[in-house]
């Protein structure tokens, strides 16, 4: 329950189900940031997650920064910054 | 997962495919004991509820299909059920299960999305199974001609081929083979007047070629992704969330069991909606780490290639080209 709005917190993003212990959760968070950092720079975007502050920080090279809650919001934000969605099946991304 | 959420079974299928008959038999055989049954009918006049007198509680949602016009009303009703349940004292029996029989024109995916995206329902209801009835007699023709019928089959966890006694074996085998190509992850059962009968296996039968329909870009096909040690659950999650964001209309269904640090997870999505994965008991499954992706508009082999890029299995080349707008 959120102390400010009184609304129950949304159940976590589906990707967060895979880690049960606090250690696993933190590991999964770092790994998530690592994967994002291997993908986003190709699109001129940055991702940062220090493991402490809630959320993931997404930025672009023009200095725009946003904190998003989960992966769904990462891709929405990336689409907003780029003006098009990041398509994992884009032939250029696949290196063809 | 033993959270306190109510289970909801979605029963769908094309018009006249035998949904109510099947459900009536299940209720008669005490399959959904104590469940609250909601019947949705597209027509204004409810008929089905008269047939389903055995249910412990039943209500009818008439005058519109729950996936479009009557969606708000469905959400309203489900909310009310949640309310009543929350007010039940802990000592009394609480409602545990809802069965929602959709109208023959409903897209189960749309209903799943309505429940998943409602801020209240998502805390109270977990869709445990999508059962879709397929008409043994007309099913094949419906699959050939009706995009909706295909969408229903694609959304199913369990397919029930009905009217086995009325159709001939050859066309039934063909129907089963077609269903297997459309929805390879679904379990296929048979029924005559609701009572279970094993369906023909469909082995050796050639699936009916499904023509491209107007507005449908290309044929829908399944791809199996075999995950190995190099691809971890986190990278897979990042990849799938990106894929569904960009290609959610093409990637219609993803289903499989994945091993994670927390245990085995049953993962499934219908279009852009991913259900919160369910924990499975720890046992070695043959199908572990195999993901079935069903969709269209991409090349099957690109899926694994793209996933490997995300997981960092392959070295990335110069990707600066992507910065330029396409």
TrEMBL record, chain A:
Annotated protein name in UniProt: Uncharacterized protein
Origin superkingdom: Bacteria
Automatic annotation (TrEMBL), chain B:
SMART domains in the cross-refs: CobW_C (SM00833)
Pfam families the UniProt entry points to: cobW, CobW_C
Isomerase listed as a keyword: no
InterPro entries named among the record's database cross-references: CobW-likC_sf, CobW-like_C, CobW/HypB/UreG_nucleotide-bd, P-loop_NTPase, Zinc-reg_GTPase_activator
Single Gene Ontology MF annotation: nucleotide binding
SUPFAM superfamilies (alphabetical): Hypothetical protein YjiA, C-terminal domain (SSF90002), P-loop containing nucleoside triphosphate hydrolases (SSF52540)
Catalytic activity entry: GTP + H2O = GDP + phosphate + H(+)
This protein's UniProt keywords: Chaperone, Hydrolase, Nucleotide-binding
Listed Gene3D superfamilies: CobW-like, C-terminal domain, P-loop containing nucleotide triphosphate hydrolases
Residues of the CobW C-terminal domain: 220-311
Record carries keyword Hydrolase: yes
Gene Ontology cellular-component annotations: cytoplasm
The protein's role, per its UniProt record: Zinc chaperone that directly transfers zinc cofactor to target proteins, thereby activating them. Zinc is transferred from the CXCC motif in the GTPase domain to the zinc binding site in target proteins in a process requiring GTP hydrolysis.
Family to which the UniProt record says this protein belongs: Belongs to the SIMIBI class G3E GTPase family. ZNG1 subfamily.
Protein name (record): GTP-binding protein
Protein source organism: Pseudaminobacter soli (ex Zhang et al. 2022)
Upper classification of the organism: Bacteria, Pseudomonadati, Pseudomonadota, Alphaproteobacteria, Hyphomicrobiales
């Amino acid at each position: 329950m959120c102390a400010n709005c009184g609304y129950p917190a949304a159940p976590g993003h589906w990707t967060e189900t895979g880690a049960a212990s606090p250690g696993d959760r933190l590991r999964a968070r770092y790994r998530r940031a690592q994967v994002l950092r291997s993908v986003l720079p190709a699109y001129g975007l940055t991702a940062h997650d220090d493991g402490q502050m809630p959320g993931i920080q997404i930025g672009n090279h023009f200095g725009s920064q946003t904190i998003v809650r989960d992966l769904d919001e990462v891709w929405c934000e990336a689409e907003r910054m780029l003006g098009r969605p990041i398509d994992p099946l884009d032939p250029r991304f696949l290196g063809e | 997962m033993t959270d306190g959420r109510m289970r909801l079974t979605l029963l769908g299928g094309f018009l006249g495919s035998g949904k109510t008959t099947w459900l009536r038999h299940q209720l008669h055989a005490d399959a959904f004991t104590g469940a609250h049954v909601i019947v949705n009918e597209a027509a204004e006049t409810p008929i089905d509820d008269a047939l389903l007198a055995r249910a412990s509680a039943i209500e009818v949602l008439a005058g519109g299909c729950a996936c479009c016009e009557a969606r708000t009303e469905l959400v309203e009703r489900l909310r009310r059920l949640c309310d009543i349940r929350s007010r039940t004292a802990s000592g009394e029996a609480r409602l545990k299960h809802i069965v929602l029989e959709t109208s023959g024109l409903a897209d189960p995916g749309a209903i799943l999305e309505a429940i998943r995206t409602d801020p209240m329902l998502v805390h109270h209801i977990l869709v445990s199974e999508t059962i879709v009835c397929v008409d043994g007699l007309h099913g094949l023709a419906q699959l050939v001609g009706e995009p909706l019928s295909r969408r229903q089959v694609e959304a199913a966890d369990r397919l029930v081929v009905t009217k086995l006694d009325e159709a001939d074996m050859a066309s039934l085998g063909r129907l089963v083979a077609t269903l297997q190509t459309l929805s390879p992850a679904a379990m296929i059962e048979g029924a005559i007047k609701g009572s279970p009968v094993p369906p023909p296996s469909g082995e050796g039968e050639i699936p009916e070629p499904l023509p491209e329909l107007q507005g449908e870009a290309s044929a829908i096909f399944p791809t199996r992704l075999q995950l190995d040690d190099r691809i971890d659950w986190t990278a897979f999650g990042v990849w799938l969330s990106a894929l569904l964001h960009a290609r959610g209309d093409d990637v219609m269904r993803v289903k499989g069991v994945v091993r994670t640090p927390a245990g085995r997870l049953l993962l499934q999505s219908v279009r852009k909606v991913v259900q919160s994965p369910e924990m499975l008991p720890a046992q070695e499954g043959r199908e572990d780490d195999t993901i079935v992706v069903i969709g269209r508009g991409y090349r099957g082999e690109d899926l694994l290639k793209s996933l490997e890029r995300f997981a960092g299995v392959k070295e990335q080349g110069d990707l600066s080209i992507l910065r330029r707008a396409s």
